[in-house]
What we know:
Helix content: under 10%
Strand content: 35-45%
Radius of gyration: 17 Å
Bound molecules: copper (II) ion
Largest sheet: 10 strands, mixed
Structural class: mainly beta
Mean pLDDT: 83
Shape: globular
Number of strands: 10
Number of helices: 1
CATH class: Mainly Beta
CATH superfamily: PCu(A)C copper chaperone
Amino acid sequence: MIRTLSFAATAALFTMPALACEGFSAHDAYARFSTSMSQSGAAFMAMDNTGPADCHIIGARSEVAQRTELHTHVIDDNGVARMMQVEDGFTVPAGGDHLLQRGSDHIMLMGLTAPLEQGESFDITFEFEDGTEDTVTVTVDNERMPMQGQMQGHGMAHGTDH
Length: 162
Ligand SMILES: [Cu+2]
């Protein structure tokens, strides 16, 4: 028992961030808030993984929000798009990518701690399944059009805020 505890303590001391998921990167990260008074918003980005192992994101946090959740959109039985928290997290496959985009997977920022203006940047820290973390800088861009800079016409849900 004592030995196990001391090993864990030693391991924690020498654990460096982003070792296991070293191929992870994110780009084109932006966030939307309906108004500067809005109490919630959503963040989108393209995630890449050049490493040999899948990157499994199980959580996220940000100083700008009381709660930061991994969300996706689903179409319910009535054909209505709803968003819900993703229990299993997001997987960025080895050698592949994963898009967070409007009408699909996104980062939900709930209970903003301060108003966020157009053009401001803030950090979101992703927590990987293996205990490592990576921080992505996100820029507020409320004027971004859906799917800008990405392929069009995948039948994405429309008319939703995010
Ligand atoms: Cu959401």
